[in-house]
Amino acid sequence: MIYKNALITTKDEQFLGYLEVDDKGTIIKIGRGTTNKKGIDCKKLILMPAFIDSHTHGGYGFSFQEIVNENWQNKLENYLEKIHQHEGVAAVNITTVTDTWENILKISKNLLNLKNTSILNWYLEGPFISKEKKGAHKEELIIPIEEKHLNELNLNKKIKSIIAIAPENNNNELLKKFKKHFYYTIGHSNCYDFSKKFNLNTFDFFTHFYNGCSSFDHRQESLVNTILNNKLSKNFLVEFISDGIHTTKEIINFTYKNIDKNNLIIISDSLSPKGLENGDYWLGPLEITKKNDIFYLKNQNKIAGSGMPYNKILNVFHKATNCTWSEMVLFSSYNIAKKFKKTNKFGTLKLNQKGNFVLIDKNFNIKMSFINNKHYTNEN
């Protein structure tokens, strides 16, 4: 199949051209200009690598917490089909909230049966976090990390898990001991004076920057100060929810200008009722309320997560910053694909590799997506 008359966009450039994939979904040609060969006319819309939402708890009625039960595989497949088609998302991290340790081990065991290549890793956003910055996590289930926890999680060799850590409440030497087996993210932490007590090199990510952490302080080194004041290593990624609700458009633009483009990734932090009607739902053991594109803890004004589709979150960022389309490739797929050494499949458009790409208009409306050798369309 040939996709022609498209604005082909990579992390490095954008040009009018065409792209051809064979019947196995492999990219066999990328050309500049036009072609007379038969194919899909992309009408000068933007063709770019399909997106990666690396921090999401589910959507369309499916929660990753359900992996604790049997018969979750079909629900996962249905969820992935929806985000492939409607959001242009090719891959995600399975993100779970704080739960009982028994349930966490059940999820770990069940993930040994995971077969879908659209799942990159398992992201444990709890229980090793701060009670002061717990957000939408059940406080009585929050615990400090122990060696037995890491040993039990390490029994699953199929994926390299991402573990959210509040540094001030956990054993830093223990984290270093298991560093080669896990990714660590600074998350839900009320830490101050991080640079005096810890080392950023121990960590790989920062969980939803600005949210669930010690806020900017003009006298002390908060975690926001730590990220903004330090030159981040090329392997450290800062998550950012750019829905215009978790962070304002002014802060979105400020963040774009003050964090290196190679260190920033856009996430949704979406919850399982994303795509469903407004109303009350459950987030693990906590009851939440959906109001349009945002979730709150029930009967509280505390944000619990996002209900905005990933492509719309990207649109908010792009409009707020006026960044280049190539930069949007970095933020929406390439940076995280590079971190996980998956650029042979995600975040790039290259000859002789599997094609995973989307066709969008300037407002990030998904016109078409090609993911895992399947063509999806949203055109009438």
From TrEMBL:
The Amidohydrolase-related domain, residue ranges: 46-372
A molecular function GO annotation: N-acetylglucosamine-6-phosphate deacetylase activity
InterPro entries associated with the record: Amidohydro-rel, GlcNAc_6-P_deAcase, Metal-dep_hydrolase_composite, Metal_Hydrolase
Cofactor descriptive note: Binds 1 divalent metal cation per subunit.
Keyword Ribonucleoprotein: no
EC number: 3.5.1.25
GO biological process, one term: N-acetylglucosamine catabolic process
Active-site residues, as the UniProt record annotates them: D269
Cofactor dependence: a divalent metal cation
Residues noted as binding substrate in the record, renumbered to the chain: A136, N211, G212, R219, H246, I303, A304, G305
Name of the protein this chain belongs to: N-acetylglucosamine-6-phosphate deacetylase
